[in-house]
Design goal:
68% of the residues lie in helices and 21% in strands. It is α+β, with helices and mostly antiparallel strands. The chain has one domain. This is Zn-dependent protease with chaperone function.
Length: 57
């Protein structure tokens, strides 16, 4: 497995290939949500519903 070094916030971060793939995937997902704000609102409602359900138990 390959290792990568990224400079993040002025600090060198050592990442594995898998970690780098996850970071890229999260970035793509974030861009997708930014271009579809209605999905972001649905996710917020789901989180609110889950919080309410947790308090009932």
């Amino acid at each position: 497995m390959k290792n990568f070094t990224l400079n993040i916030d002025g600090k060198d971060r050592h990442l594995t290939e898998t970690e780098l793939k996850w970071i890229r995937l999260i970035g793509k997902f974030k861009k997708y949500l930014e271009s579809h704000p209605e999905l972001d609102k649905r996710i917020e409602r789901i989180h609110a519903f889950n919080e309410q359900a947790n308090h009932r138990i």
